[in-house]
Design a protein that fits this description.
Helix content is 30%, strand content 26%. By secondary structure, the protein is an alpha/beta fold. It folds into 2 domains: 225 residues, ANL, N-terminal domain (Rossmann fold, 3-Layer(aba) Sandwich); 76 residues, GMP Synthetase, Chain A, domain 3 (2-Layer Sandwich), CATH 3.30.300. 33% of the residues are buried.
Length: 314
């Protein structure tokens, strides 16, 4: 991603009027399903101008009640907060929502979530389908600019893909050299703010663009088949995806170390485990309710220190 262009994009999106428009944009979607006094769990930081704060304001706009995790980010706290508040919707990363669903089943803790709002990777078809069936909920996705708190689009719930926030941004699909590709071809996503068309932010993510009519009636084009690109290690991504599909697996971290693949796996005791890949280092341990935090929440420096202290290496 071009850092200078991204900084300019961030500055444009951080202007008070732009933040207000983003809040209005999210509010329109929430009005589809959120009712007054519904409690919506937000698993992103509530810092001014951030994605979490924009959703917080939108929740208040529809008369619902935003609920935040606070400083306790443990899996057990996430489950307890969702249960005690009887939250009807959750806004988090896909893997955090998937883990919450598994926790609910393992601990036999009933949840009341009927809508899952997601931002970030991954967005595998099996994951979205599993959440829809496993939690009996409808899934909604936000397209944010590389986790930089810039909302560039959202799914409509009526079809696959993500609608571009067309009143604010143009999107092109380009090749490695920046040449615009025809509609329907997979390439890198390039986002252009209408407030300053000279700014072009080329993302690492890949997608194709679809301008055909959508059942929801929105005229905005859709990004389809969004996937990670750039420097993403597709081998580790594939391994993680296969492991996450097992109900016995709560959390996964796969990375390349000095001597090869390294795998950390948090599992539920008493359930059948998947066949594990060959790794240079492997840690498989039972879920610890008193300490375990989703890997997605944990800064890498903290995660690395925690991993180094473990002694149950295989």
């Amino acid at each position: 991603m071009n850092n200078d262009a991204l900084a300019k994009m961030k500055a444009l999106a951080s202007e008070p009027d732009a933040i207000d428009r983003a809040v209005e944009y999210v509010t329109r979607q929430l009005r589809i399903f959120a009712k007054e006094r519904d409690r919506i769990l937000i698993c992103f930081p509530n810092e001014p101008g951030s994605l979490g704060h924009i959703v917080h304001r939108a929740v208040e706009e529809v008369g619902a009640v935003p609920v935040h995790l606070g400083e306790d980010l443990r899996w057990s706290s996430l489950l307890r907060t969702a249960f005690l508040n009887k939250t009807t919707a959750i806004f988090a990363s896909p893997l955090v929502i998937l883990g919450l669903n598994k926790l609910s089943k393992f601990t036999k803790t009933p949840l009341y979530i009927r809508h899952a709002l997601m931002a970030g990777h991954p967005t595998f078809d099996w994951l979205l389908d599993g959440l829809s069936r496993g939690m009996d909920c409808q899934t909604w996705g936000y397209f944010d600019l590389g986790g930089k708190d810039i909302i560039c689009g959202q799914s409509c719930g009526a079809s696959l893909g993500v609608h571009i926030r067309y009143e604010e941004y143009d999107v092109e699909i380009v090749d490695e050299d920046g040449n615009v590709l025809p509609d329907g071809q997979i390439g890198k996503i390039c986002v252009i703010p209408k407030a300053d068309p000279t700014v072009r932010v080329r993302m690492h993510d890949l997608a194709r663009i679809d301008r055909s009519p959508c059942p929801c009636g929105r005229p905005a084009p859709r990004l389809m088949d969004i996937r990670e690109g750039g420097d993403t290690d597709m081998d580790t991504l594939k391994i993680a995806a296969e492991l996450y599909q097992w109900d016995s697996v709560l959390d996964v971290c796969v990375r390349r170390g000095e001597y090869g693949l390294e795998l950390d796996l948090v599992v539920f005791p008493g359930l059948m485990l998947p066949k594990l890949p060959n790794c240079a280092k492997m840690v498989v341990r039972n879920w610890d309710p008193e300490n375990d935090v989703p890997f997605w929440f944990m800064p890498m420096w903290k995660y690395s220190a925690l991993s180094a202290k473990r002694i149950d290496n295989f």
